Amino acid sequence: MVRKLKYLLRAAISSLFLSTLTVTMLTQLLHGQEKLVAPGNVTSPLAVPHVPFGSTVASEHQAMMLRRLWGIEDVHIRSVASGSLIRFSYRVVDAEKAKVLNDKRSTPYLVDEKRGLALQVPSVDQVGQLRQVSIPQSGREYWMAFSNKGKSVIPGDRVTVVIGTFRAPDLVVEASYPRQNAR
User: Fold this and answer.
1) In 39, 51, 74, 175, which residue has its Cα 20 to 30 A from 149's Cα atom?
2) Is the dihedral of CA 163, 167, 169, 171 positive or negative?
3) CATH at 147
């Protein structure tokens, strides 16, 4: 039974990663963000004037601050696994600034101040913590999943992600599928 659950969990995580990657690529194509750059016109990723933001980040200003202070963009908080997990994902644009997010010595929390909750990243036998702790690389997407056993945090809730000195307040939890309803 436990072996079957572990297998299903690994399959769900792999599926989530691939579906997120596909959705991200399709979104970029739909919004015309895929541009060809001539070799002489290469600029720093931090110099790009347009800062894309999804429904997790409340404003373009907040997206710009996450990019400038922490070196991340394309931030998403999604309710997944039928609401039992909350997945936090982001793309690194400045690996040096984003190091704190992948520091294995820091305990990540997803805080719902309205309900007085602090969700943690669970640790699964033979898999470890449901988070990536490798050295961040610019252009790569990283994620972690917070346990939401009682399904207390639902799509539409505003939460804060805290990892060491990193703090991203007022992020809106997205539904994993557009038709999932909030209470």
Assistant:
1) 74
2) negative
3) 2.60.40
**Backbone torsions φ then ψ of 157, nearest 5 degrees:** -70, 150
SS3 (DSSP) at 152: coil
| Cβ–Cβ under 8 Å, residues 13 and 85 | no
Tens digit of each residue's pLDDT, the chain (183 residues): 655 555 555 555 555 444 444 444 444 444 444 333 333 344 444 443 343 444 688 888 999 999 999 999 999 999 999 999 999 999 999 999 999 999 989 999 999 989 999 999 998 877 767 888 889 999 999 999 999 999 999 999 999 999 999 999 999 999 876 544 445
Residue 154 resides in a domain: yes
| Structural domain boundaries, residue 97 | 48-175
